[in-house]
Amino acid sequence: MLKPDKHTDIKYSVVYLSAIMLKEIQLSGIIKYDELKNILMQKIGNKANENFEQALSFLYLLDRIHYLKELDSIKQN
């Protein structure tokens, strides 16, 4: 869900998670899927796992990231 409502905790929103994800990808260059997920869960908490895939899809749809299937990794476009 991209549109927040009064029950949305911004800390776990797709937009916020996407921003943190993009920053980590920029710092690492190429980062493994599991490593990115673990970093987010350490920084934000286990509840970040609920929107992890949606945030990753959001960045992919915006053409900000590229998934490397053979490495199971993500890099910035």
Relevant terms:
3 helices; three-stranded antiparallel β-sheet; alpha+beta; 77 residues
Question: Can you walk me through this structure?
Answer:
This protein is of the alpha+beta class and 77 residues long. The protein contains three helices and three strands. A three-stranded antiparallel beta sheet has the order 1-3-2. The protein is globular, with a radius of gyration of 12 Å. The two termini are 24 Å apart.
Briefly characterize the structure:
By secondary structure, this protein is of the alpha+beta class.
By secondary-structure content and strand pairing, the structural class works out as alpha+beta
What pattern of helices and strands is seen along the backbone? HEHHEE
- Please count the helical segments: 3
Task: Provide the gyration radius in Å.
Answer: 12 Å
Q: How confident is the prediction overall: mean pLDDT? A: 91
Number of beta-strand segments: 3
Mind describing the biggest β-sheet? 3 strands, antiparallel
Distance between the termini: 24 Å
| Coarse shape | globular
Query: For the largest beta sheet, what order do the strands appear in spatially?
Result: 1-3-2
Instruction: Please indicate the percent range of residues in DSSP E strands (runs of 2 or more).
Output: 5-15%
State the helical fraction: 40-55%
> What are the low-pLDDT stretches, counting only 5+ consecutive residues below 50?
none
